[in-house]
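To fix ideas, we give here one paired sequence and structure record:
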Amino acid sequence: MTKKTIGDQGEEIAALYLEQQGYKILKKNYRIKGGELDIICKSIDEYIVFFEVKSFLYKFTYHPLYRISAKKKRLLIRAATHYLLVRQLEEVLVRFDVLVVNVGLRKVMHFYDVIHRNPAV
């Protein structure tokens, strides 16, 4: 199985998980120059939630949250800011979550509010 296949399957599993948890999916794979958001949702409590999905086949050698570098965080925040500005959603509650998906076992670990926006970004 290729890395892309694992990633694509992980995002499919993540989307199903989110729908089961009551999230409304607004957009998948939102891309701008220099950044991409895997899944954008509205939560039951009205947050706009930007999800980064990290997928692996069966086991990982170190915690997947460590795979999100400072540069990646900046790119996610930039893409999220663009999404909000284009849709004129400046006054909404926002959260950045990470979903770690074990594709082989079809299991999802949800980490809430793991990336924090800097108002100067």
In short: The chain has a mean pLDDT of 89. Strands lie at 24-32, 35-42, 48-56, 94-102, 107-111. The helical segments are 3-20, 70-86. DSSP finds two helices and five strands in the chain.
